[in-house]
Design goal:
The complex is a heterodimer of chains A (434) and B (112).
Chain A: H1 2-27, H2 35-63, H3 69-96, H4 128-146, H5 156-179, H6 183-187, H7 195-213, H8 229-248, H9 256-284, H10 289-303, H11 312-337, H12 345-363, H13 366-369, H14 380-408, H15 417-422, H16 424-429
Helix pairs in contact in A: 2-3, 2-4, 2-8, 3-4, 3-5, 4-5, 4-7, 5-7, 5-14, 7-12, 7-14, 8-9, 8-10, 9-10, 9-11, 10-11, 10-12, 11-12, 12-14
Chain B: E1 2-8, H1 13-22, E2 29-35, E3 42-46, E4 49-53, E5 56-65, H2 70-81, E6 89-95
Antiparallel strand pairs in B: 1-5, 1-6, 2-5, 3-4
Helix pairs in contact in B: 1-2
Classes of the chains: A mainly alpha (434), B alpha+beta (112).
Chain lengths: 434, 112
């Protein structure tokens, strides 16, 4: 009986597949669009969205105090929504429609002219709408990352104004310069999935944000211990899985390069986690969970620019470097200079992004990305990478400073003293965890 | 009537409850509390930032008993909650002026 019903189920299933496949074959989809690439990129797009919500939202919210959990989640959630709208209306067009020296064109404003058969020259085997959507997820997570440095004290309205402006004035140009065919890309800067565009960019903006806003009240004296690190662990897991789409999808094709990017990503995350854990165990006597997840995220951020250019064993070295550099940044550099980057956006993403961008130039292997780095005798590549880092650092740093000052002219950046003590959940959003 | 209030280590709650059942105590009120005595607190380190955690999690048990049961209850709690380490907690015994069982209106020792 059971065998018979299984057979019948299989027959029905096969019939469905045939019915579903028949019209597709008859219609002859646009010649250039590849079904496997498209399928993979749909998945990758969803994975990158999952990194923001709920991945980053949980990662950040777990590290703040209980009175600021919802406010921290609200920042990530709101910029995911707001950034998506801005990207559709103008961001995509200015970044990826045309290869002008500074910005793209207005040709694709509100996705004007984007049809079912449109493809972008940057990803010629998938629908342009999917390329646009994938890049949208990158744009929003970059803005969401910045929120971590100003957590616990930034006024929600000021944060939204700043995010919208930063999205257009800082993210869009840098993405265009590196990926949209402008001068950094033309100079040969290697940035597979966003070491400069996403991580260094967000990290520098986070550092400037923390400096302009000033430290949280009670910094250095009050207890700022994370209220629930288990949320942050779940968030890290979602980020880690999502990163397969973030780096693997940046190949824009379902092939070996995507697989090697994913392999490198996983190895670097693992090496980063082990390195940070070992360092903490050695220097402080106990391996903390916060340390392990910080190391994993550091490894993920650091491998990002290099993931589609290096061999798997390079990824291990890059992961270890990520653990060393980011541990040092968060536990020494930050204390030495006394800035209050609440959730270490600069220490993890900024320093990691810069390190990874540099190491991409060191380890780039012709066998993977068809580009050689220092280890294959092309020392110039390291200088090119430094050029990319310098431009990103300067534009993000200056742009963030100017925009924060501009916003503060009409909305105070920080909540007032009482609201900060009471918590942002209840004062900014009128709700709170019980 | 006496009110026995015990502050104990959280992981000792089940042992204390069993011991109290053993001496015939069938009701108690338990609260999760925070505090410190000689144990002081401990420090926690988050990405290099050190915080002193002064208030440690403890359990507060409150039991109302008759005058003659008080000593046995105190003894039972003391024996069950003891580890010999600093931070085992304390037991306080205070007089109760009046007790009422809300359902029946019974008072004093009938209400216990």
């Amino acid at each position: 009986m059971r065998g018979a019903s299984l057979t019948r189920a299989a027959a029905v299933g096969a019939a469905f597949v045939l019915i579903a496949a028949a019209p597709a074959a008859a219609q002859q989809p646009a010649a250039k669009i590849d079904a496997a690439d498209t399928a993979w990129m749909i998945v990758a797009t969803a994975l990158v969205l999952m990194m923001s919500i709920p991945g980053l939202a949980l990662f950040y919210a777990g590290m703040v105090r209980k009175k600021n959990v919802l406010a921290t989640m609200a920042q990530t959630f709101a910029v995911t929504a707001l950034g998506s709208v801005l990207w559709m209306v103008i961001g995509y067009s200015l970044t990826f429609a045309g290869d002008g020296p500074v910005l793209g064109t207005l040709r694709r404003v509100a996705l004007y002219g984007m049809g079912m058969d449109s493809v972008s020259t940057l990803a010629p085997t998938i629908p342009e709408a999917l390329f646009m959507l994938y890049q949208m997820m990158f744009a929003v997570i970059t803005v969401a990352l910045v929120a971590g440095s100003v957590a616990d004290r930034m006024r929600f309205s000021a944060f939204l104004w700043f995010s919208a402006l930063w999205f257009l004035v800082v993210y869009v140009p840098i993405a265009h310069w590196v990926w949209g065919g402008a001068f950094l890309g033309k100079a040969g800067v290697l940035d597979f999935a966003g070491g400069t565009v996403v991580h260094l960019n967000a990290g520098v903006a986070g550092l400037v944000g923390a400096l302009v806003l000033g430290a949280r009240r009670g910094y250095g004296t009050d207890n700022f211990a994370p209220h629930d690190l288990s949320l942050a662990v779940i968030g890290t897991g979602l980020l880690w899985v999502g990163w397969f789409g973030f780096n693997g999808g940046s190949a824009f094709a379902a092939g070996s390069r995507a697989v090697f990017a994913i392999l490198s990503t996983h190895l670097a995350a693992s090496a980063g986690a082990v390195t940070w854990m070992a360092l903490e165990w050695w220097t402080r006597g106990k391996p903390s969970v916060l340390g392990m997840i910080s190391g994993a995220v550091a490894g993920l951020g650091t491998i990002t620019p290099a993931s589609g250019f290096v061999l798997p064993w390079h990824a291990l070295i890059i992961g270890i470097a990520a653990g060393l550099v980011c541990f040092w940044s968060c536990t020494w550099l930050k204390l030495r200079f006394g800035y209050d980057d609440s959730l270490d956006v600069f220490g993890v993403h900024g320093m990691g992004g810069a390190t990874g961008t540099l190491l991409a130039g060191v380890f780039a292997a012709r066998a993977i990305g068809n580009v050689s780095g220092l280890t294959e005798g092309h020392a110039m590549q390291v200088l090119v990478q430094l050029y990319g880092i310098a431009v990103t650092l300067a534009w993000s740093g200056i742009g963030t400073f100017v925009l924060l000052k501009a916003v503060s002219a009409f909305v105070p950046l920080r909540v007032d003293r009482q609201a900060e003590v009471e918590g942002l959940d209840v004062t900014q959003h009128g709700e709170a965890l019980q | 009537m006496k009110l026995v209030t015990a502050i104990i280590k959280p992981f000792k709650l089940d042992d204390v409850r069993d011991a109290l059942l053993g001496v015939g105590v069938h009701g108690m009120t338990v609260t999760e509390v925070k505090g410190y005595g000689r144990q002081k607190g401990h420090t926690e380190i988050y990405r290099g930032a050190e915080y002193a955690v002064n208030f440690l999690p403890k359990i507060r048990i409150e039991i109302a008993v008759t005058e003659q049961d008080a000593d046995r209850v105190v003894e039972a709690i003391g024996a069950a909650a003891k580890t010999g380490q600093i931070g085992d907690g304390k037991i306080f015994v205070t007089p109760i002026e009046q007790a009422v069982r809300i359902r029946t209106g019974e008072t004093d020792s009938d209400a216990l």
